Amino acid sequence: MFSFIIRLKASLLFFVFLIQAEIVFSQNYPENDELFSCTTITVGKNASADGSVITSHTCDSHRTRSWLDITAPKEHKDGAMQTMVKRTAFDSLAMPAYHHIAVGEIPEVPSTYGFINTANPFMPYDMNKLFRINGGWGWRGERTIARWYTMYATITQSRDWLPDEIGGVVWLALDNVATSIYIPLYCSITDVPESYKVPGRINGYKRESAWWAFNRLGTLTAQRWGDMSHDVRDVWDPIQIELFKSQLSFEQQALNIHRNNPELLKEYLTNYSIKHGKDVVKKAWELGDYLWTKYDEKF
């Protein structure tokens, strides 16, 4: 059992390492915006330590929304329609954002699943071109993964041997993942901390926004990266390791609830995710304050 935990933790830490691998802090926008596209890495069940199917994604954007919430499953009436929109740049708010213009409607399906409602970015290029790249420095060549303009990053972990409510978990980090931390959001949760629902781009800087806690921390750390990054990782790394280490015991308790009191399971998982979400946001604000104090007049 101990060796399994070590292998599982190593697998997840490997993903965190990949996402945090290197940082580019240049604030210059390239002429070709395609260089700013998101990054996705996928591992099949035969390649992961415990048989999980794992997918990571960084939402790299200067405009994508900074809030998220939970959309519940829905049943739709006959004849219901779904509005299709076109995303366009919108610069009339406090910060650059997107405006969604209705372009038509399509028939709605009878029922839709619940989901974690974040941004929905798509890669703006032909995947076939990507497949022909083998690590060179040409079109869409090598680039760092952790980026200063990342809005959020996810590592999804799917395990078909567990009940659906427990087997699917999204490890979510806000802003630049090199100065952030992943928390578990189980696919059956019904809510997230209030601060995660607060838009951060529409009205600008807000202490009520979870994204701003991490955006502020990442931006500040970039000013003296060689020193501050160590202070940041000294705080986040032990917490991250403990989250990975405690996952197995937490999910064992969740399985017991699923067998004995299944109606309480979603509440149990939701409370767990909310607790850790609140904890890391509070710590991010404290860590930013600490850096301001420690490095006063030093950058």
Write out key terms for the chains shown.
single chain; 299 residues; alpha+beta; 5-stranded antiparallel beta sheet; 35% helix
Please characterize this protein's 3D structure.
The protein has one domain. The chain has six helices and 13 strands. The protein has helices at residues 2-19, 127-131, 164-167, 210-222, 225-260, 265-294, and strands at 23-24, 39-43, 53-60, 69-71, 74-75, 81-90, 97-107, 111-112, 115-117, 146-147, 150-158, 168-174, 183-186. Helix 4 runs parallel beside helix 6 and helix 5 runs antiparallel to helix 6. It is globular, with a radius of gyration of 20 Å. The model is unreliable at 17-34, 121-128 and 130-142 (pLDDT under 50).
Biggest sheet strand line-up: 2-3-11-12-13
The total domain count is 1
Biggest pleated-sheet summary: 5 strands, antiparallel
Indicate the proportion of strand residues. Answer: 15-25%
What share of residues is helical? 25-40%
Query: Order of SSEs, N→C?
Result: HEEEEEEEEEHEEHEEHHH
What's the total helix number? 6
Cα shape: globular
Question: Topology, pairings included?
Answer:
Elements: H1 2-19, E1 23-24, E2 39-43, E3 53-60, E4 69-71, E5 74-75, E6 81-90, E7 97-107, E8 111-112, E9 115-117, H2 127-131, E10 146-147, E11 150-158, H3 164-167, E12 168-174, E13 183-186, H4 210-222, H5 225-260, H6 265-294
Parallel strand pairs: 1-10
Antiparallel strand pairs: 2-3, 3-11, 4-9, 5-8, 6-7, 11-12, 12-13
Helix pairs in contact: 1-5, 4-6, 5-6
